[in-house]
Amino acid sequence: MNLGKISASALYRVQIRILRESITKRSANTLLTFFSMPELRRYDGADETPREMERQIRSLMQAEWPAPGDETGGPLVAPEWHPTYFILAEGEIVWSYTRTVWARVTHLGRSLKLYGLGDVVTAPGLRLRVRQPRRA
User: Fold this and answer.
1) Which of 8, 26, 31, 52 has fewest C-beta within 10 Å?
2) Could you tell me the fold of the domain covering 38-124?
3) Full-prediction pTM beyond 0.70?
């Protein structure tokens, strides 16, 4: 879907439809969340990340990718990977999370700095679901 070509009235109709579904399917708490504006936050390393947000991130990741055992004791990502965390949150409530890492490697005698993206996860109730049009 190319959002650049959607008219204002079509976008408004989509917003109204989403709002109606939110009213009928979700609690008042979630409806308030619908109208909120989240903030994108960046944290350079585990020491900067608020503990309550880290707990929520672990919960989101465990729900999405269940892991055996309890991994709540250590950092989200090993410090030697130089993680940078990106958290989309409203207040102290985490909506979505991802992180980047980097490491130096040597290949054929040449030192390279490699970057990676990982742990991309959004709270299930906040994911955009695209519906296919009904066939006549």
Assistant:
1) 8
2) Aminopeptidase (3.40.630)
3) no
